[in-house]
Amino acid sequence: MPLIFTAPWLLAGLLTLPVIWWLLRATPPKPAQEPFPPLAILAKIARHDQEASKSPWWLTLLRLVLAALVIFAVAGPVWKPQPITFTGAQPVVIMIDNGWASAPQWAAYENQAQWLISNAEKNDAPVYLIATADPQNTASGPFTAAQALERLQALEPRAVPVERLAAAERLGTALNNTADSRIFYLNDGLETAQDQQAFTALDKLKATTIQLIMPDSQQLFAVQGVANQQNALVIDLLRPSNDVQAAKVQLSAYDNQGRVLAQTQADFAEKETKTVAQMTIPVELRNDIAMVRADQMRHAAATWLLDENNRRRRVGLLDASNADKAHSLLSPLHYISSALAPFADLINANDRDLSQSVDRLLEQKPSVIVLSDIGRLPESTAAKLMQWVENGGTLLRFAGPRLAAAQSDTDTKRDPLLPVQLRSGQRNLGGTLSWSTPQPVAPAPENSPFRNIQLPDDVTVLRQVLAEPSPDLMQKSWLNLADGTPLITGENRGAGRLVLFHIAPDIGWSNLPLSGGFVDLLRRLTETSGAQAANAAGEQTVTLPAYRLLDAAGNLTGQPAAAQPLVIEKGKTPEASLLNPPGLYGTEQAYKALNLMKSDTVLNPLTKPEMTTNLAMVPATKAQTVNLQGSLFALAAILLALDGLLMLWIGGTFSRNRSRNFTDKASGTVKSLLILFALSASLTAAPFIVQPVLAQEAQVRDDSKPDDQAKIDVLDVTHLAYVITGNKATDDVSRVGLSGLNQFVADKTSLEPGAPVGINPENDELAFYPMIYWPVDEKAPFPSEKALQRIDAYMQQGGTVIFDTRDQLSGDTSGLNGTSPATQRLRDMLDAMNVPPLAPVADNHVLSKTFFLMPDFPGRYRGSPLWAEAPADNPDAADQPADRPVRNGDGVSPILITANDLAGAWAMDENWQPLYPTVPNDPMQRIYALRGGVNMVMYVLTGNYKADQVHVPALLERLGN
């Protein structure tokens, strides 16, 4: 029953209430004022029969209630007494769950335990106190009542799961075969995997009775997981399976400063134990979220902590070429984008200038930057990327023809943005350093971050770039081929890392990009990027100290002394426990979140176990026991004071009316209301009486620039350009030579080019010109880094540059392998640019058939080959596979190199007479030079539309058959 009395015999005082009622009926008459004269007083002494007046019924009732309250108070009333009582001096065992699920009802648990301890004190019974989430070495008793109460006050709920089996074993050791104990188990009402073993251990203690004190029914919502997906933050929630009512849960997301960034509501349908909620907010805010919690809940499972692995990674993609942007399947970045898109936000850099592209990527603070087949980077750009890597970024590079070609110069300096030094060229199936069969992939070594990733057996590699042997190559090899050569290498740099795939990102070198293993590899690299990437890569065991931990209410606190460092072995994170409570492990700069709930956690209610011992399940009281004695005395005192005031009123003490006139008050109130009504009416009407403002005539803003007209004039007509070297004689030859070529092109084709334009590549816009002629002058100032970057960007975006060293007469006929001053200057310039593999133009090259059929490309001189990007049909080209197509700019080579002095052969005076003789002096050589120039112009303007002429013999043969 909810109400008892500690001294019920005192309730006999209620029998005096009728007597009190009888005494209260009579009320002494009011004293009367009389004149003092004695005779008048004596005259009125005569006795008359008088009837005593009675007190009002409501005053009598008030006094009876007052008397009853006093009687009830002295009887010691207690509200909601504890239902569990016992007698006898047998040991009292109080076993209490103090895990995360006990936090919402901990006050009720303490109240119940205090009652049990007070009963044990009355019966002189020893007390054993066992907490199921306490360390194994915690004292369990026996305690005196005072000691047990002190121990209970020191107990608190913990943000960990309970360990009932360990508690039962600890209790058995403490009892030491003591029989006839009474066990009272205050449990949290949830089932655990150890329950059967734990209750079996309790059954063996031979207790006289075991009472499972069940908690009151409550709504218990837990956050089971948080995923930062492409468009929203997805939150998984669960609740106990016995909670079948429809419910709503308010969720809030907080940043590291405790500020609310977003809120949403999760809805549980009837009989639904799991549900999903979403927070649709920008990725910038999602990446700042450090904690998600259910607002109504005050326990650790209602809080989910996020770390670097929950951030939505930004991945910057950069490709040096302009290959097949209209055909996504042929793009080098296609397979990378497809693999990363589901779990990362991709940033594509579209600037023509490589350095500007890198700057734009760095401004958006990516976690990973992917460089697809980029061989050379400007020094200033490389320095920026290195600084970004050392601050925690991951630079992921893919090999390709450009990267292979970049290693083939005589400069043996190691690229600082590569984890290993590469050999020049590449290794391919059927070529130098070749395999007889495609190479499969070997299992990842133990020091690799990919050690838990299983690639399909059918993944093979046809071509790769090789690493130079070094003592640390094995340590840097994260994935190898079956023959032991590295497929993926990586190393830590500062807080970040450098990673190199020794294959191209398309399917020309390997079928790895077609497999699901490619997705797994990129996902592992992306998810482990960030401040802690350097610690996670290549280590089998990572030990992280406790940084900030959750308390039982789900709040982040400081590090408790009992928390052990979190040991992650082979990438496997341990579950939350007493030694490793949920929280953040690591440092302020790099930490890992350990949460309470797992993906397979199910909250089931605790059921009655089968035991030989007398077992009972009893409910626990939700509120603490309340002693009503003080409250009743206070209420009686209030009624006593009220009785006194009523007596004064009856006596006429308050008969004089000193209140203000009600009409005056009402009048003032009405006036105030009228004023407020007038003000509100004027404010409401204001928008309708404001005079409208007439719209002014729109003015067109002139945002034109002084050189805009010149740019428009250039766009009206196709112009060829030449680079101004600063040497007047050289620049004059370039201008006159291109003028002569323009005239010849206009005579032989329908194209009428405009006057040639001299440009400064450092400042002038290059996109207006389809072809730029650059006479290499070793005496001219070396081009600036900016100029070379802009020329490099121009070539990557589809433009073509003709580099002419004009040194064929130097005696060196080996082309690019020569060592003349002009050739060395050209090599120094190309070292700063991202140049594709080159090969001499063969007889079947598209360039030799675009307009005239050209056996070679002479200028003033003859004998130097014309070098271009290695085409698909040149199997003998150095570092160039036979099946690799030339795709840049619709099949147009971005670079042409010669030493034959083309402009000198094209130069004509006003009468169409040559200005410079050819060597040897052959009139047809000049004609061939001009025809070759026409082919070059047609080639850069029309692309590979005549590539089918390569197959003319085969087509004619088929037609003949």
From TrEMBL:
This is DUF4159 domain-containing protein. InterPro entries: Aerotolerance_reg_N (IPR024163), Class_I_gatase-like (IPR029062), Double_TM_dom (IPR011933), DUF4159 (IPR025297). The keyword Isomerase does not apply. The keyword Transmembrane applies. Keywords: Membrane, Transmembrane, Transmembrane helix. The chain crosses the membrane at residues 6-24, 57-79, 632-652, 673-694. Residues 1-77 form the Aerotolerance regulator N-terminal domain. Pfam families: BatA, DUF4159. Residues 429-439 have a biased composition (Polar residues). Residues 429-450, 868-891 are annotated as: Disordered. It comes from the Bacteria. Residues 719-941 form the DUF4159 domain. Residues 868-880 have a biased composition (Low complexity).
